[in-house]
Amino acid sequence: MKYEFSQRVKSLKPSAIREILKNSSTPGMIPLSAGNPAPDAFPYEDIRKISASLLADTPIEALQYSVTEGYAPLREHLKKYMSEKHGVGKESDEVLITSGAQQVMDLLTKTLLNEGDTVLCEAPSFIGSLNTFRSYQAKLRGIPMEADGISIEGLENALDTEKNIKYLYTIPNFQNPSGITMSLPKRKKVYELCRDHNVLVLEDNPYGDLRFAGEDLPSIKSFDQEGVVMYAGSFSKVVSPGMRVGYAIGPREIIQKMVVCKQGEDVHSNIWAQIVCHRFMTECGYEAHLQRLRDIYRRKAAVLTAAMKEHFAPLISWNSFEGGLFAWCTLPESIDMLEFIRRGTEQKACAVPGTAFLTDESEACQSFRINFSTPTDEQLREGIEILGKLAREMA
Amino acid sequence: MKYEFSQRVKSLKPSAIREILKNSSTPGMIPLSAGNPAPDAFPYEDIRKISASLLADTPIEALQYSVTEGYAPLREHLKKYMSEKHGVGKESDEVLITSGAQQVMDLLTKTLLNEGDTVLCEAPSFIGSLNTFRSYQAKLRGIPMEADGISIEGLENALDTEKNIKYLYTIPNFQNPSGITMSLPKRKKVYELCRDHNVLVLEDNPYGDLRFAGEDLPSIKSFDQEGVVMYAGSFSKVVSPGMRVGYAIGPREIIQKMVVCKQGEDVHSNIWAQIVCHRFMTECGYEAHLQRLRDIYRRKAAVLTAAMKEHFAPLISWNSFEGGLFAWCTLPESIDMLEFIRRGTEQKACAVPGTAFLTDESEACQSFRINFSTPTDEQLREGIEILGKLAREMA
């Protein structure tokens, strides 16, 4: 039988990068290309206890069909917690529990975007979200990143010239892949500009709780008085990614449409995981847990930075970062970046080429992304040494 | 701020039926409108033991990111089990684990359907799937059901006259809502007709293991030599719906595209639930468990049938059914069906109006659906008595 695929699927091009990365899971490979939380970051003792009590005391609740909007006590707790701690969400907002934050990107796009409509994004940006937008045939317009976040001039220009812009996608804290954090003045300016152009902001904040240096900055959603911002939160980096629990906090009118779309996608998210997240947040010393995570990642970031100082400087430069899971490194013009990644992978040190994070993979890019949460300390030191040596050979 | 929604979301019309059913969860309501497995059908002792051992022995595996295709041991086991037991799946097929079987409907539609393309379905059919197809702006063409399954004449006519048909959606066993099982000759004919017209068959089989009378019939997928059938399976009715684990078995070329779409929707399905399903299938006497479920539903179906014989006959008729969770009942022409459902709900006996399951809700329909898995035996008897008395009043 001959199959005819939909236009949206046909438009998803195979990636040149996938070819480079397809060996990234071979044995012995140092996983600098990953994005997994560190194994010691999982609160599995608490999860085991909660799960045991849940399956002993109220098993039917944890196993029966549930509602699409999400487990009501978790939604209520998040509404209160995010409002009190982060100023996120107000009376006209609603909370929707999703199957990971990726589903927030998917449902918002499904709700708002017609084929060919424009999504503004940071350049570079998170490849997973860009691919979700592409699957709805979005036109992606990348706006350059600066040391303090998205270029305001670039954003103004895009808002003035692009047609049918549905939203701006931004990761303001420890952005994936650049590690950059948007400054407070820029957060305010982004909010005002988008509001004035009647363009929604999709604020993706998976790493906000993983700040190990500097001061917390208010989220863009915390300025939101007019229903401009859809906030995406996630338990993947702070509890468990395998549970697939994320959430959206945004204007009720939009959330209600996203609920209808979610009903058609997966009816509701795994209810055991939602209850575990709720009880973990409310019964297990959540703030102390976040502090422990910050300590873990502060230490691992220090291991990486020391190795980069020893083996990368001055040939390879990197953005400073105060949290998150990634470092963004840049090669001198004399080195072919894709060839560098290819040879690094052959030598078992696998980083991600920066072109993977661009709206157009064929654009020039000298940067690559290093993850420091997945590798062990030893692997980090070894991987950076391999890549540093390789760069000196290729320079 | 003013929001502009996508065409696909704007085209999802509010349902007249939702208004009737919105009180279905009020306290004291007899849940004849539900579709939940019976509480005593959950193997929660086994799930508790598996989960405890899993979170004690290999917690990181159960909590870390996993692959989009699904937990490899579960995929391999399903491939072997479904092939050996049901003749489902061969070398050119692949298995994809999904977040409930609903996601199979979603991913296949996303992979194949352009706006305005046609989906053939049984009339009536499962409202959840119809709404998924609608969310991709499918043109739905309903084909009448007969006592032994879909009308072959109707199918031939649709295949000959409709344009851009992407697939036929069918639930061959104990169909939701009609309870009808497709005969063996019709299964063969459906396969041949679709193959000859280069139209895929989406075979949805959530209830196949719940046969409590009669003989098992081979699935349409078991005839598939040419890559014509995408099979959707589910653990929702046989293990737990709250876990959200389903699966697709179908042509590798299509499954690979569905994997790309799933990556953008939710990255992967909850991994704890996938491992629990695998271990439950392989370690806990799965066939004996299925037998126990059939015993539960055979008994509950007998309670319902006895009540219908006492209170419905001869005024209200019903389709005979040999498995599944639903009975399909039909009122005489003298009774206004929607008014009957409305008044039944007022009297705390809430059934689903048959129009909910049609491609066009405004079509004439004298039928309604009764679920017998969710209510207790006592509730079943009481609910049927209320509806029987009401029908006699209204006749």
Topology:
The structure is a homodimer of 395-residue chains.
Chain A: H1 7-10, H2 16-21, H3 44-57, H4 59-63, H5 72-86, E1 93-98, H6 102-112, E2 118-123, H7 127-135, E3 139-146, E4 149-150, H8 152-161, E5 165-170, H9 184-196, E6 200-204, E7 229-234, E8 246-251, H10 252-266, H11 271-283, H12 286-311, E9 317-318, E10 326-330, H13 337-346, E11 352-353, E12 367-371, H14 377-394
Parallel strand pairs in A: 2-3, 2-5, 5-6, 6-7
Antiparallel strand pairs in A: 1-8, 3-4, 7-8, 9-10, 10-12, 11-12
Order of adjacent strands in the largest pleated sheet of chain A: 1-8-7-6-5-2-3-4
- Fraction of residues in H or I helices of chain A: 40-55%
Main pleated-sheet profile of chain A: 8 strands, mixed
Uncertain residue segments of chain A: none
> How far is it from the N-terminal to the C-terminal residue of chain A, by CA?
52 Å
Task: Report the CATH architecture of the largest domain in chain A.
Answer: 3-Layer(aba) Sandwich
β-strand number of chain A: 12
Look at the structure and give the CATH class of the largest domain in chain A.
Alpha Beta
How do the helices and strands follow one another from N- to C-terminus of chain A? HHHHHEHEHEEHEHEEEHHHEEHEEH
Please report the two chains with the greatest interface, counting residues with C-beta closer than 8 angstroms to the partner's C-beta: A-B, 76 and 76 residues
Shape of chain A: globular
Number of domains of chain A: 2
CATH superfamily of the largest domain in chain A: Type I PLP-dependent aspartate aminotransferase-like (Major domain)
Helical segment count of chain A:
14
Please give the radius of gyration of chain A in angstroms. Answer: 21 Å
Assign the structural class of chain A, choosing from mainly alpha, mainly beta, alpha/beta, alpha+beta, or little secondary structure. Answer: alpha/beta
